[in-house]
Amino acid sequence: MRGFLHFIFLGCTVALSPYKYGQDIMNIEASASLLDQLYGELVDSKESREHKFNCINEGKVSTTKNNAGKSDFVEDVNYNERFAFGTFQTMNDLIRISETQQRTSRMNAHEKYLTHRSSIKFPENDDTSDLFTGGIFGGLLTFGGFKTMQCFNSNMFDHPIDIAIVGAPFDTGTSYRPGARFGPEAIRLGARRLHEGVTPVRGNGPNSKLRKVNPYDSKSHNFTIIDCGDVPMTPFDNRFALNQLYRAERAIHKHSTSGKVDIPLPKIITIGGDHTITLMALRLAYEKYGRIAVLHFDSHIDTWNPKILGGGYSDYMSLNHGTFLHYAAENGYLEPGKCFHLGLRAPYILATYDQKHDRECGFNTITARDLDDMGKEKIVTQIKETVGETPVYVSVDIDVLDPSTAPGTGTMEIGGWTGRELLTILDALEGLNIIGGDVVEVSPPYDTNSEVTSLAATAIIDSLLGLLIVQSI
């Protein structure tokens, strides 16, 4: 700004007294701030900390010198060097210093800094103990930093798994915008920070056992949790791709469990992929547990008759992300009357027929706006009283959330739940006999630069992990 000098350091700007026109402002600003920006020890030294908070009005800047002894190198520098370190006393000092002197000051001060700085103590050259301990950016990319193995290899079946996370990169069952095949990778990226500890909002109420659960700390539970990676599902044939997923998850059930928790076989959380993949998980769950109750969090009913959605011209066309629950009911996988749609709000295709057919498939409906009228407590009470001890599969389509919360999906609908509302309801399911679940329809190409949809999906999977673990605590 013309007419005033500005002393700049670490984001703090102090206006000094007026200067003479023609004075090189940029050099003065740089000499007062560059060293602090480039050399971290100056920022952390006693001199700089005290100097930073001693900006005085009326055109003066002062510091309190370090009396610690050997770290006090400012005492040893000459007048020009003190200027370069920002230890000048008045505006007159600044004006007396020529451009050449300023440049010399910076060079001398740099040399003095290098002479007196503390050396960094590196580990021994052959010490790699800090290179395989994980962290946000270390090692292979897995969900929450969990260990991985070749879960689908029959030679690995003697390696125990209690909870498996499986990616299903499949999106050729979509009716609108594809891209969910990239969901598993994006969700794992969003899960890099999940190992950091117990969230203060997990569970509902002070007596919730979920409050004690940290899925990423084996000291808080006895579960062996493995990220099995992605199933290599072909993009060229839907029928064969879904068969690949079925065989892969069937292989996981052949693994032994750790024996540390009371579960008969490994539980699986599947990361989609479009919602068509859920049919294979329901088939497998039915084979192991019998008829199951599905809690279907979605903006769409997904029980459409294939003759309505897909045309019904061929079996290949008939199975898609809007008809898979029709087939699950038709094949007898579901416990009639004990299944729920939650967060429903998308338009029907043929309203009267679709609603009648949905009831025939065995579903109860709680719409997105029912949450406003009923509240979380009534919704959860209705679910628990209806489901009872029936094995429960939780399937979450990310489009149950409002597009403001989760824009990265193929078929978004306005008027959905917030992330907080969904997570609150999920945590309130504590106590149900949950045997598995999935999160689907995350489509990264439509997400924000901040990857907010993927982050929402990681929080949902985090909740599902908690629900699976808490049953054995």
- Terminus-to-terminus distance: 65 Å
* Total beta-strand segments: 13
Average per-residue pLDDT, rounded, comes to: 82
- Based on CA inertia axes, which overall geometry fits? globular
Query: Strand fraction band?
Result: 5-15%
Number of spatially distinct domains:
2
CATH class of the largest domain: Alpha Beta
Order of helices and strands: EEHHHEEHHHEEHEHEHEHHEHEHEHEH
Parts with pLDDT < 50 across at least 5 consecutive residues = 1-44, 55-89
CATH topology of the largest domain: Arginase, Chain A
Instruction: Please count the helical segments.
Output: 15
Question: What's the short story on this structure?
Answer:
The protein has 473 residues and is α/β, with parallel strands linked by helices. It has 15 helices and 13 strands. Helices cover 33% and strands 13% of the residues.
Short key terms for the protein model shown above:
473 residues; alpha/beta; Arginase, Chain A; 2 domains; 9-stranded parallel sheet; 13 strands; globular; disordered N terminus
